Amino acid sequence: NQITRGINIDEDSKRYYPYGTLAAQVIGFCGSDNQGLDGIEAKYDNELKGTNGRIDRRTNASGVSLGDEDYVSAIDGNNLYLTIDMTIQSIVEKYLKEACIDNICTDGGSIIAMDPRNGDILAMATYPSYDPNSPYEPSTDELKLTWDSMDAEGKSAALLGMWRNIAISDTYEPGSVFKTVTASAALEEKIVTDIDQEGQFCCTGAIEVAGTRIKCWRYYRPHGSESLRLALMNSCNPVFIGLGQKIGVTKYYEYLRKFGLFSKTGIHLPGEANSIFVKEEKAGPVELATISFGQRFEITPLQMITAVSSIANEGIYIKPRIVKSIQNSASGEITDLPIETGEQIISKENAKKVLSMMNSVVSEGTGKNARVDGYQVGGKTGTSEDGVNTGKYVTSFCGVAETDNPSIVLLITLYNPTGEGGHQGGGVAAPVGGKILGEVLPYLSSKSGD
Fold first, then answer.
1. Could you tell me the pTM of the whole model?
2. pLDDT tens per residue across span 390-442
3. pLDDT at 373 over 80
4. Average pLDDT over residues 49-60
5. Beta pairing class for 393-401 and 408-415
6. What pLDDT, on the 0 to 100 scale, is given for residue 297?
7. Which of 129, 139, 176, 407 is catalytic?
């Protein structure tokens, strides 16, 4: 219209995230051309982006139209339905932020909530988070203070760290939470049959392994005579080292494979990392000993919660999933993504025994700070060094509720807590589990009509 001055309004479209930071690392974000750059947005970009509209016309070599123009309408992208429960996600994020701030977790933290019956990820949170509506802006007060003084390389590294979903992309030493795997293997191999047999084990404060003395965390006050239940309640390293020795490297590695710990889970999110284990042929007595109580190897939080969820799923491996169904935008047809299970790792009876022991860990043992009145909560605490000689610790808690009929497994992982509360899983991570389950369990009960 030959307008050279004034205001011109052009129609445009862009992705908008109405819930802001909620599940940011899961959902991801889009670029300036609405292309998915991270999270679900990137993984399912072809499903979500649709097809742009266009005008088709026939022209001669000079570009002069030779006839009518045909308008081809745009086609909307398909709809995805995630397994994330918005209420549970909100509760999880609230208490994760509180825990990381109160305990001064210098390297952040993550929490995953999973339904062991179908593998649905009910919540997956990382702290610090960010707002997908403005993904290139610093998200924390600390980052905002130093942002302007950073060079381009520093800002890029900070943004990548902010977007990173550490629940699936970072590995860690799980510590004593992993004793649930060793206990499962020992029961299945009939090394232990009666989990309450008094005097079956004896903790003297340390155990000698191939010339290396490995101490119990209560070295100066040994646990003494124990059953397997008491050993798990006390988180007694020597007992689980002894179980690992009786299982043996070959058989123990077979269970690691069955629990899916040598491969990625295959969850439909970008950037999933894999575990780091010493190769079976190079695993000697000391390596087997440390693996048996959860140290000197690395797995992702997602791999750890999948293993515990498989125990809670009556001993059957359950694959985690984040997308429940896909809806065709044109036809409205909904395609459900399948629930995927694997082999029977341990028997249903032995799975119940492990859950019973985890229940005792919360009711009377190291996880008692995770108790929720009126509910049967099981769990296991963990504390491990973040690498060798770094001076940093990872504290964690894995909870199962309710243990007589599990509907949720929760894994809390906090990186390098430096607050006054220390770095022990029972004192730092277990209380977070209790707070979350204290709100989530009544919510789940109301959903099921109980």
1. 0.92
2. 789 999 999 999 999 999 999 999 999 999 989 999 999 999 999 999 999 99
3. yes
4. 72
5. antiparallel
6. 96
7. 176
Whether the Cβ atoms of residue 325 and residue 301 lie closer than 8 Å to each other: no
Residue pointed to by tokens 């992702």: 300
Say how far apart CA 287 and CA 291 lie, in whole Å. Answer: 6
176 flagged as catalytic: yes
Residue 72 confidence class, pLDDT cut points 50, 70, 90: low
Mean pLDDT value across residues 323-336: 93
